[in-house]
């Protein structure tokens, strides 16, 4: 898709991968609506609009999209990025944390997709990108709750791809390995470091998938740091 003058919605834009995506997309001439709980104080460009949204709250999501559709005839791109993880043995995961992960990582994607798909079908163009994780590809001890939420993202994405391809709507699921963001704040013991992926590079790989020709579709995009623990000594 040629990106200039297209309209995109990105969720979770205060920091990390979502913020990097907004920066790259606005630089490429995309009008970006950022849906999030918190606004980044440094992202001030005319083609970026922040809409206060909690993706766990269906009414909040509905209102955000109503606001966008009052101004735009089409949303060409939806990037479901908002997400978070809590780690630990399953029996120690707090109920509130389990619910927060499921509501954000899974329900949030459903709520946003539900708002854009009818208009994308009508317009015959669209690209939905869901950010899963390598935790959607393999089970990991102490990551069972987060894995459960991200495996749901994989299942939803692969099914939705088959559901929407004949409407000329692409669905891409991206599986990043460890990325140097604030994501690890809830996982004592893991410090972000320079051998992780950089959020700008994850964002670039998504933008490249968006830019591919209409009949080229990236279904699953697994990206990992080459040497996550640094060079072998
Ligand atoms: N970092 C990694 O190693 C890694 C690896 C694979 C996949 N991922 C996935 O990548 C995505 C982005 O994570 P990140 O690494 O960039 O983490 P991050 O720096 O913690 O950013 C997460 C973003 O999601 C937003 N968010 C969280 N809950 C929200 C809600 N209910 N409504 C709206 N926005 C909400 C946060 O906003 P607030 O500032 O308001 O909290 C923040 O902007 C997540 O889906 C994550 O699971 C991350």
Explain what the structure shows:
The chain is of the alpha/beta class and 233 residues long. It has one domain (7-223): Rossmann fold (3-Layer(aba) Sandwich). The chain has helices at residues 16-27, 58-71, 95-123, 144-164, 199-211; strands spanning 7-11, 31-36, 48-52, 77-80, 126-131, 169-176, 220-223. Strands 3-2-1-4-5-6-7 form a seven-stranded parallel β-sheet, sandwiched between helices. Helix 3 links the parallel strand 4 (77-80) and strand 5. Helix 1 (16-27) packs across helix 5 and helix 3 packs parallel to helix 4 (144-164). The chain is globular, with a radius of gyration of 17 Å. The chain starts with 6 loop residues before the first strand and ends in a 10-residue tail after the last strand. The mean pLDDT is 97. Residues 11-18, 36-38, 53-56, 81-85, 104, 131, 133, 176, 178-179, 181-183, 199 line the site of NADP nicotinamide-adenine-dinucleotide phosphate.
Write the layout of secondary structure elements.
Layout: E1 7-11, H1 16-27, E2 31-36, E3 48-52, H2 58-71, E4 77-80, H3 95-123, E5 126-131, H4 144-164, E6 169-176, H5 199-211, E7 220-223
Parallel strand pairs: 1-2, 1-4, 2-3, 4-5, 5-6, 6-7
Helix pairs in contact: 1-5, 2-3, 3-4
The structure holds NADP nicotinamide-adenine-dinucleotide phosphate.
NADP nicotinamide-adenine-dinucleotide phosphate (NAP) binds at residues 11-18, 36-38, 53-56, 81-85, 104, 131, 133, 176, 178-179, 181-183, 199.
């Amino acid at each position: 898709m040629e990106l200039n003058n297209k309209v995109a919605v990105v969720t979770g834009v205060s920091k990390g991968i979502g913020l990097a995506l907004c920066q790259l997309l606005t630089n490429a001439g995309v009008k970006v609506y950022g849906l999030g709980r918190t606004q980044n104080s440094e992202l001030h460009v005319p083609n970026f609009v922040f809409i206060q949204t909690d993706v766990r709250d269906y009414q909040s999501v509905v209102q955000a999209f109503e606001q966008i559709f009052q101004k735009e005839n089409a949303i060409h791109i939806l990037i479901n990025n908002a997400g978070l993880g809590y780690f630990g043995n399953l029996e120690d995961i707090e109920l509130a944390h389990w619910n927060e992960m499921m509501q954000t990582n899974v329900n949030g994607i459903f709520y946003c997709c539900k708002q854009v798909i009818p208009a994308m079908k009508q317009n015959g163009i669209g690209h939905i990108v869901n950010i899963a994780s390598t935790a959607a590809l393999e089970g990991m001890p102490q990551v069972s709750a987060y894995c459960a939420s991200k495996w749901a993202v994989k299942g939803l994405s692969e099914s939705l791809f088959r559901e929407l391809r004949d409407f000329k709507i692409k669905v891409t699921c991206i599986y990043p390995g460890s990325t140097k963001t604030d994501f690890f704040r809830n996982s004592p013991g893991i410090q972000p470091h320079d051998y992780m992926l950089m959020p700008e590079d994850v964002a670039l790989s998504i933008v490249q998938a968006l830019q591919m020709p209409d009949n080229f579709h990236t279904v699953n995009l697994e990206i990992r740091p080459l040497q996550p623990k640094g060079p072998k000594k």
